[in-house]
Design a protein that fits this description.
about 70 residues; mainly alpha; 3 helices; about 80% helix
Length: about 70
């Protein structure tokens, strides 16, 4: 996710607890979705879609934080 910000992500994960929480939650949702789609974990189509929307909102928020931090 966001390879152009790899160094900044590393920096923020070391200093910004809010960013780290969002980043970890995004990765957790990503893994949950993959498990549901692979039928490793149970989940309806609607549940998967809801999780995907939540993940997208987190990604948007992470991107916003990255853009602001890069502009500083």
């Amino acid at each position: 996710m966001f390879p152009e910000y790899r160094d900044l992500i590393t920096k923020l994960k070391g200093h910004d607890h809010h960013f780290t929480r969002l980043f970890d939650k995004h990765n957790e949702l990503d893994q949950t979705i993959k498990n549901m789609e692979a039928r490793i974990a149970s989940g309806t189509h609607e549940e998967i879609e809801t999780l995907k929307k939540e993940k997208l909102l987190l990604k948007d928020e992470l991107y916003s934080i990255l853009k602001k931090a890069a502009a500083v």
